[in-house]
């Protein structure tokens, strides 16, 4: 039994080292940093790090703009995530239906936006939204897509454009794994294409939809590139517009200890939301 155990350790050790170095260690370091604060002796005295306990967390929970940004991204997610995943599911079903010719071309075409870096995509769409730069000035001249009321949904459009193809591929891969015998049985029972999609395909790819939803919840709370770029196009986007932008702005002051506390609270909120969603979907699946 010794040899198999050594072989198991040989294969697990590289992952364990990388997981510890690039996942656990940064989390522990952030928690440690969040427990300290900076003190100065006098107005121009040297800055000294001292243990502050939960002082930084008290500041986090008393920070109104931070919690407003949490509410903003939650509203963003409630609207944008269902729209994005609905489009991804629709495109995956169309590719799997056999009605579309040139599936390889469309599969690649739908995925190409995901290959565009988020910052580049945000800059490109920012130019398209800007009334003075957009080639669609007939639209942007009459509707200010960068105003305080619409800029959040303009960013939602950018995120949807980038990630629809990525989520579509995950769902489409799950569709390809469904045995053909299931479809043959449905055809024998007289089920049409729409009935097959609704009663067979969608229930069988539900695990993939749940997976993409969890990824999207995590991505929503980590929204950074789009608001950071849109700050150059719109005065409606402040330095605390999203939680991650708040962390970035706070660390740029620099106030690394408060930024670490923001990060820890944001990570806990992300874990709680993802876990709650998984528990709800599991409970619904058990019924």
Automatic annotation (TrEMBL):
The chain crosses the membrane at residues 7-31, 73-96, 108-130, 150-172, 204-225, 256-278. It holds the Pfam family BPD_transp_1. InterPro entries: MetI-like, MetI-like_sf, UgpAE/MalFG_permease. The keyword Repeat does not apply. SUPFAM superfamilies: MetI-like (SSF161098). It is found in: Cell membrane. It comes from the Bacteria. Keywords: Cell membrane, Membrane, Transmembrane, Transmembrane helix, Transport. It is a multi-pass membrane protein. Residues 70-277 form the ABC transmembrane type-1 domain. Belongs to the binding-protein-dependent transport system permease family. This is Sugar ABC transporter permease. It comes from Actinoplanes flavus.
